[in-house]
Amino acid sequence: MNNIALVTGGSAGLGRALTTALAEQGWTVVVDARGRDRLAEAVDGLGPRVHAVPGDITDPHHRDRLVAEVTALGRLDLLVNNASTLGQTPLPSLAELDLDAFDDTWLTNVVAPLALTQALVPLLLASRGVVVSISSDAAAEHYPGWGAYGATKAALDHLTLTLGEENPALKAYAVDPGDMRTEMHQQAFPGEDISDRPLPETVVPGLLGLIGRRPASGRYHAADFVSGDAQEIA
């Protein structure tokens, strides 16, 4: 049976690495990103089973296109809510946070993935599928400047795990991938050398291990599914 996944934010970073790995394992993958050209470059050479749908996840019409693309394929085994934004940069203290900018961060990191998940729940239930929402340690820890982003990730964690409680036929995971050498992480540390951070490709085996093992719904570290120390984290 052909497994089908939808990965948001797949033109760079972890989304691109995961899309590539799933395609190499024979999955059919629907993937989106805001930049049409960059998304096309990211999926070039991955074969006809990768369906690129450019657009902004905050746009309801784009979400409708994603749902239509998946529906046409007939099933959905895995939804990965990966698309996100760091928000206002340089990272401000909460006392200096621009609330209009926070509205945009909330829309991208919380409202849009919830809306997409809502639309896809029937397909996920039919396949007893998996929902993975990419989280952050900032959702559970408190770092200066990371309050707005961390709050959105904490909210996404809560929504994802509540979805799992409400739908026992699904597996729902909030996954902390750890620090990665990505453009978004570089934006958080402008002018700093982040070459010591691991590449997102190193996180993918942990995500695949989680998806393959299907533990109880919960919040996990991706790295634990490589080391064998996997356990739910608060």
Produce the secondary structure layout.
Blueprint: E1 4-7, H1 13-24, E2 28-33, H2 36-43, E3 50-54, H3 60-73, E4 78-81, H4 99-127, E5 130-134, H5 147-166, E6 171-176, H6 183-188, H7 204-213, E7 218-221, H8 224-227
Parallel strand pairs: 1-2, 1-4, 2-3, 4-5, 5-6, 6-7
Which structural traits does this protein have?
234 residues; alpha/beta; Rossmann fold; 7 strands; globular
Distance between the termini: 35 Å
Q: Low-confidence spans: pLDDT under 50, at least 5 residues?
A: none
The geometry reads as globular
The first-level CATH class is given as: Alpha Beta
Structure description:
It is a single chain. The protein is α/β, with parallel strands linked by helices. The protein has one domain (4-227): Rossmann fold (3-Layer(aba) Sandwich), CATH 3.40.50.720. The chain has eight helices and seven strands, in the order βαβαβαβαβαβααβα. The chain has a seven-stranded parallel β-sheet, sandwiched between helices. The mean pLDDT is 93.
Brief overview, please?
This protein is of the alpha/beta class and 234 residues long.
